[in-house]
């Protein structure tokens, strides 16, 4: 943890909407009016007055007077307010509690709010009453709040300026707050800098006048090289989301404090190369190609999230060698694909792709020709992974006889029969459905020769990856009538956005069901994916946990005890020994160490005691063969 510059500047921190997430008087009104029919109306009016005062629209003393006139609060409500405010301290202030405890003499809370509720809240952070400068209420004999002490300088217009003058602070003074009155301290020359604090509210008029904008208190500490709880402010972590994942994904990243940018549709390689600079987390679906060129331009990339199952669009080894962890959602849309496949089997067996368009054109073609039940038919599943095996169970439940072929040894479910070769499966199946992964070796897995092996009139489904089927060869057997129909959801060339047209030899062929890569596009699947992937990535960023990464050695780490060093290196002999030598030379106590390697990289996590010298970090960064190194405080 870096040592602070000496001497530390004085920090003048606002209370309402800065130290806490809310405005104290608004909350007090909410408490005092509980159960009253006019609660919403009065609280709304008080909030509006607060806002007008904070943005500089209404002079402060007028805003305060009008608010208190509307407020039917009593002394006993203040205790309830204090409890509520203790639970609403700003997240980044809570996170950096140790900073306040360590430097209480340098922090002043200067607020136009009221001492009665501010003092007990900030006391929990080690800030004494004599460093709280705020208004005070007046009460009548029955304990009802009647107004405020007009002798207090903070109750006047320009009150914060008057208060700062009285304080006569020497040396650097920095003002932090969300309101116009906080900026006025700087305008009056009583602070060297004004930081607009936007973690809770963002007021344009205030932000426009700030020396710096602070999305969190971490950012203030980071900019000023002051001790902080996080190793890096979360608001500096940029996320770029492509291809419209469910909005929940952006929401999850934003809640974590990251900056999120979204680009609808995909980006081609050139466009992504342009946009990847400065991005820490890239979120994509199946279209975006993360190539070696993209990785070369990615100067800050920590992780890639594939908001889908397939990861063949990502240079996984390239990512690994650059220390970029990749996460996907391996089963969030499995069920959706299975349901689509089952539906397609029935639709093709009943020749619906031909019948439905005719009906739309007014043609009534009632006939049983070429239509059959799926009960008792042989379903050949190629690729018996998550989707293939679940489809096996569902297909048996509707009376189909299941056969499967997989290059890996797989648990046979129900009565499914394993085929030793692809040919064995193709020759026997009435319906063949493809669920292999998108590895390059699967290009044209089903070509002219394989299609010729299929039974006359058989059906083919491809919901896996476009390059798995030789499309011109498929079109030929459909035209010739050798196959009875096909359902295709994935294509070698898919439009980048919904505005591009779709071109394929399969267009216009009989009994062919074409869908725009929507196997996993259901509300349930997209929502699951949008939570699953950000959760994995945030866990990796926050703890180093790589469980379920598709390209990193998987480590499920125990809870962090003190500081955690995360070291990714080329897998060559001796790196771990060098790391430990550095630690030993500096007498750093290792609390736990976890190492996993694969053929390219080593991933080592070292938990160490809180006490260590700064040079240790510099030396660890210099260990030969280091790819990435970071410290979690
Ligand atoms: N259409 C869509 O919207 C959609 C949605 C989700 C997944 N998918 C795709 O579905 C496919 C399967 O997904 P999953 O989750 O079941 O993957 P998985 O990794 O669980 O299963 C794939 C299986 O295919 C097997 N396999 C690979 N190559 C093979 C080959 N040549 N012959 C036989 N078996 C082979 C593997 O051993 C594995 O068991 C993937 O390509 C995925 O990208 C498409
Ligand atoms: O939604 C997508 O873009 C891809 C869906 C699917 O192909 C997957 O791999 O999960």
From TrEMBL:
User: What NCBIfam families does UniProt report for this protein, alphabetically?
Assistant: HAD-SF-IB (TIGR01488), PRK11790.1 (NF008759)
Keyword terms of this UniProt record: Amino-acid biosynthesis, NAD, Oxidoreductase, Serine biosynthesis
The keyword 4Fe-4S appears for this protein:
no
One Gene Ontology molecular-function label: (S)-2-hydroxyglutarate dehydrogenase activity
What is the taxonomic lineage of the source species?
Bacteria, Pseudomonadati, Bacteroidota, Cytophagia, Cytophagales
Q: Choose any GO biological process term that the UniProt entry carries and state it.
A: L-serine biosynthetic process
What is this enzyme's EC?
Answer: 1.1.1.399, 1.1.1.95
* Family as reported in the entry's similarity comment: Belongs to the D-isomer specific 2-hydroxyacid dehydrogenase family.
Q: Which reaction does it catalyse?
A: (R)-2-hydroxyglutarate + NAD(+) = 2-oxoglutarate + NADH + H(+); (2R)-3-phosphoglycerate + NAD(+) = 3-phosphooxypyruvate + NADH + H(+)
Top-rank EC class of the record's enzyme = oxidoreductase
Stored InterPro entries: ACT-like_dom_sf, ACT_dom, AHAS_small-like_ACT, D-2-hydroxyacid_DH, D-isomer_2_OHA_DH_cat_dom, D-isomer_DH_CS, D-isomer_DH_CS1, D-isomer_DH_NAD-bd
What CDD domains has UniProt attached to this entry?
ACT_3PGDH (cd04901), PGDH_3 (cd12176)
This one is known as D-3-phosphoglycerate dehydrogenase
Purpose of the protein: Catalyzes the reversible oxidation of 3-phospho-D-glycerate to 3-phosphonooxypyruvate, the first step of the phosphorylated L-serine biosynthesis pathway. Also catalyzes the reversible oxidation of 2-hydroxyglutarate to 2-oxoglutarate.
PROSITE patterns to which the protein is assigned, alphabetical: ACT, D_2_HYDROXYACID_DH_1, D_2_HYDROXYACID_DH_3
A Pfam family found in this protein is HAD
Q: Where is the ACT domain?
A: 564-633
Q: In which pathway does it act?
A: Amino-acid biosynthesis; L-serine biosynthesis; L-serine from 3-phospho-D-glycerate: step 1/3
Q: Report the domain of life of the source organism.
A: Bacteria
């Amino acid at each position: 943890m870096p040592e602070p510059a000496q001497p530390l500047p004085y920090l003048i921190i606002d209370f309402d909407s800065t130290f806490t997430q809310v405005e104290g008087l608004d909350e007090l009104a909410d408490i005092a009016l509980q159960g009253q029919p006019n609660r919403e109306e009065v609280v709304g009016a008080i909030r509006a007055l607060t806002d007008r005062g904070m943005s500089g629209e209404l002079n402060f003393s007028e805003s305060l007077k009008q608010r208190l006139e509307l407020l039917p609060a009593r002394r006993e409500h203040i205790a309830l307010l204090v409890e509520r405010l203790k639970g609403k301290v700003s997240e980044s202030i809570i996170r950096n509690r140790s900073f306040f405890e360590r430097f209480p003499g340098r922090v002043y809370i200067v607020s136009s709010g009221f001492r009665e509720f501010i003092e007990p809240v900030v006391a929990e952070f080690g800030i004494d009453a004599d460093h709280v400068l705020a208004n005070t209420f007046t009460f009548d004999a029955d304990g009802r709040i009647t107004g405020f002490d007009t002798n207090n300088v903070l109750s006047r217009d320009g009150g914060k300026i008057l208060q700062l003058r009285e304080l006569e602070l020497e040396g650097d003074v920095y003002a932090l707050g969300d309101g116009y009155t906080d900026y006025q301290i700087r305008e009056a020359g009583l602070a060297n800098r004004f930081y607009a604090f936007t973690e809770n509210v963002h007021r344009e008029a205030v932000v426009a006048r700030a020396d710096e904008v602070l999305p969190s208190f971490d950012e203030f500490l980071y900019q000023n090289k002051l001790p902080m709880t996080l190793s890096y402010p979360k608001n500096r972590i940029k996320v770029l989301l492509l291809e419209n994942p469910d909005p929940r994904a952006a929401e999850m990243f934003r809640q974590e404090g990251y900056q999120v940018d979204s680009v609808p549709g995909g980006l081609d390689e050139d466009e992504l190369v342009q946009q990847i600079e400065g991005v820490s987390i890239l979120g994509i679906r199946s279209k975006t190609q993360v190539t070696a060129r993209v990785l070369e331009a990615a100067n800050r990339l920590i992780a890639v999230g594939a908001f889908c199952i397939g990861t063949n669009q990502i240079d996984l080894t390239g990512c690994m060698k650059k220390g970029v962890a990749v996460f996907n959602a391996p089963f969030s849309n499995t069920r959706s694909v299975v349901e689509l496949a089952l539906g397609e089997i029935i639709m093709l067996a009943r020749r619906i792709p031909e019948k439905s368009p005719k009906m739309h054109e007014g043609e009534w073609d009632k006939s049983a020709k070429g239509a059959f039940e799926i009960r008792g038919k042989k379903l050949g599943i190629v690729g018996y992974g998550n989707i293939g095996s679940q489809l096996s169970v569902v297909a048996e439940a509707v009376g189909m006889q299941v056969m499967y072929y997989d290059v890996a040894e797989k648990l046979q479910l129900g009565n499914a029969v394993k085929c030793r070769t692809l040919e064995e499966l193709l020759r026997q199946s009435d319906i063949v459905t493809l669920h292999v992964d998108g590895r390059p070796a699967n290009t044209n897995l089903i070509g002219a020769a394989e299609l010729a092996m299929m039974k006359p009139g058989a059906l083919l489904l491809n919901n896996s990856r476009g390059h798995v089927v030789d499309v011109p060869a498929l079109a030929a057997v459909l035209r010739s009538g050798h196959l009875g129909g096909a359902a295709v959801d994935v294509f070698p060339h898919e439009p980048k956005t919904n505005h591009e047209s779709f071109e394929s030899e399969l267009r216009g062929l009989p009994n062919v069901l074409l869908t725009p890569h929507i196997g996993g596009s259901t509300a349930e699947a997209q929502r699951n994916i949008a939570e699953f992937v950000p959760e994995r990535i945030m866990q990796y960023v926050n703890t180093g946990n790589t469980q379920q990464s598709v390209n990193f050695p998987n480590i499920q780490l125990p809870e962090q005890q003190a500081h955690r060093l995360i070291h990714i290196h080329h897998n060559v002999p001796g790196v771990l020994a060098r790391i430990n030598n550095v630690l030993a030379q500096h007498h750093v106590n290792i609390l736990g160490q976890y190492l996993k390697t694969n053929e390219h990289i080593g991933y080592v996590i070292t938990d160490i005691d809180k006490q260590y010298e700064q040079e240790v970090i510099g030396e660890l960064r210099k260990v030969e063969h280091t790819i990435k190194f970071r410290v979690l405080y």
